[in-house]
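Wed. Picked up where I left off yesterday with hydroxymethylpyrimidine kinase. The coffee machine is broken again, so keeping this brief.
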Amino acid sequence: MLARKELCMSHTSSSQRTTTTPIVLTIAGSDSGGGAGIQADIKAISATGSYACSVITAITAQNTQGVNGILPIPLKMVEQQLDAIFSDLNVQAVKIGMLADSDIIQLVAAKIRHYQPPFLVIDPVMVATSGDVLLQQQAITTLKTELLPLADIITPNLPEAAALTGLDIPQSMADMQAMISALRNINPHAVLLKGGHLEQSRDSTDLLILATDVIELTTPRINTHNTHGTGCTLSAAIASYLAQGNDLTTATSLAKRYITAAITAADELKIGHGHGPVNHFFAGHHHVR
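Structure written out below (tokens, as returned):
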């Protein structure tokens, strides 16, 4: 069954809030340019009304034009960060992005099994917006077997979905729909297959693939070069809305609206000379005088 859901452009805040500030942990790499990775996650989580904490898995020398270097964080330090967070903070949702290598993936998977956070969102980061490779094939295999099955939802873009399934990169909506069965085999709970790479389409349509249903989430396509960190931002927003008590479909729909509005407002920023970041705080900036 294929349901279609048109999403308005306006940002809607969560209507169902917990009595304390929702805490979201992001586990990802640092982007020195501030547009993607941990930096984008913290901005998105904060802008959508939750408290962000972080575990850094790698440091990247990166800007809007590309990735100049990657330094994985020592395994012991990743473990210490994870234990420090979970031993003190009541984490309602975890978002996982770049994990750098197989050893870090295995460690994070073991800690997720141990601490069992209520919600887990995984953005299977493999390639940067600039095209730079962020995860090698052996690590992709480890990601598929050790970590992705633990997630409540994974959020691959089309090249990432092709790498995970072994299928060709989709060139049409029909190709995206043909991936549904293979993606369910990777994660039977939920997959958000992002259609942003179908640039010939006038709309941006993502497929929310649930166990027994598929929902199209559609917004108008925005003509901009400022798309750095869109995947990080979307997955972090999903985790934030889940932490606030929304169900998976609602959280994903709200996050889709949020990222669409952030991309729409991105040209206001004028950051860098390449693929600029989205405008996470499009709703307004508050200045203390």
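Quick read: The first strand starts at residue 2 and ends at 6.
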